[in-house]
């Protein structure tokens, strides 16, 4: 009986300790699922991060929640906050930028750019560390690990996709693939603009040439509809998915390489038949 009572007391104190630790964790709400991907990594065990919007099937963000009392709120800029009806006077609001330095499309691609990701992560780290100064060194370590994970994941891509040739028709995710391997061709901006302006002849000619050379046509949820429609005529293509909910961002970045490698393998097998 005494042993049972002692065990019950230990369990009780253990639960209270867990509750106390959870209560001490910084609570953060971010306006975008993009910000969630980075903030949740930098916050680690010291922060509880949730997104106030999610992606729909088209890759657009849709608001799903509102900030709660006591939450630190992180937004890209005042316009991003206003989109979710978060006023500039909100004392818990923190901004990455006073004015977003690039268009929405380029900002989306920045989350797949290994050169830009550390800068975004650093700005988020500064906000977290300023709000939770006692854990400053922890957030610094998470930032260093963030950079290390970028490098190691890119190394996996170079190994998996060595010698693969791809025509990048993505709206964002191709930035990650182009940064990791050399066999990826992206149409110049002037050519891309011509396709979107209705030059279907030039678009079909480019897709025909890529197909003739055996290149994989790579698309994603943000590929413009005109290009997506034209690409459906070519069987050797792949549309990358949105980042899955509740999956660590680096797991997804690794999955991009795996998905492409599997598609290339399937395409090669079919070519032999």
From TrEMBL:
Signal peptide: 1-20
Source organism (scientific name): Cloacibacillus porcorum
Protein name: Uncharacterized protein
Keyword Signal tagged: yes
PROSITE patterns per the UniProt record, alphabetical: PROKAR_LIPOPROTEIN (PS51257)
Domain of life from the UniProt record: Bacteria
Keyword terms, alphabetized: Signal
């Amino acid at each position: 009986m005494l042993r049972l009572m002692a065990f019950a007391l230990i369990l009780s104190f253990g639960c209270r300790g867990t509750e106390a630790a959870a209560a001490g964790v910084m609570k953060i709400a971010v306006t975008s699922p993009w910000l969630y991907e980075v903030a949740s990594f930098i916050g680690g065990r010291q922060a509880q991060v949730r997104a106030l919007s999610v992606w729909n099937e088209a890759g657009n963000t849709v608001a799903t929640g509102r900030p709660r009392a006591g939450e630190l709120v992180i937004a890209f800029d005042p316009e991003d906050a206003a989109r979710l009806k978060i006023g500039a006077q909100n004392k818990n609001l923190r901004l990455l930028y006073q004015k977003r330095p690039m268009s929405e499309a380029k900002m989306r691609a920045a989350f797949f750019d290994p050169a830009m990701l550390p800068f975004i992560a650093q700005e988020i780290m500064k906000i977290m560390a300023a709000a939770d100064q006692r854990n400053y060194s922890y957030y610094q370590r998470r930032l260093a690990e963030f950079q290390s994970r970028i490098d190691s994941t890119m190394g996996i891509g170079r190994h998996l996709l060595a010698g693969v040739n791809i025509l990048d028709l993505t709206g964002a995710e191709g930035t990650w693939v182009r940064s990791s391997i050399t066999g990826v061709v992206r149409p110049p901006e002037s050519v891309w603009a011509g396709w979107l302006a209705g030059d279907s002849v030039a678009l079909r000619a480019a897709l025909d040439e890529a197909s003739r050379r055996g290149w994989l046509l790579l698309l994603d949820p943000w590929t413009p509809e005109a290009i997506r429609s034209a690409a459906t005529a070519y069987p050797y293509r792949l549309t990358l998915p949105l980042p899955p909910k509740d999956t660590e961002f680096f797991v997804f970045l690794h999955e991009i390489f795996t998905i492409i490698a599997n598609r290339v393998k399937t395409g090669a097998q079919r070519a032999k038949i």
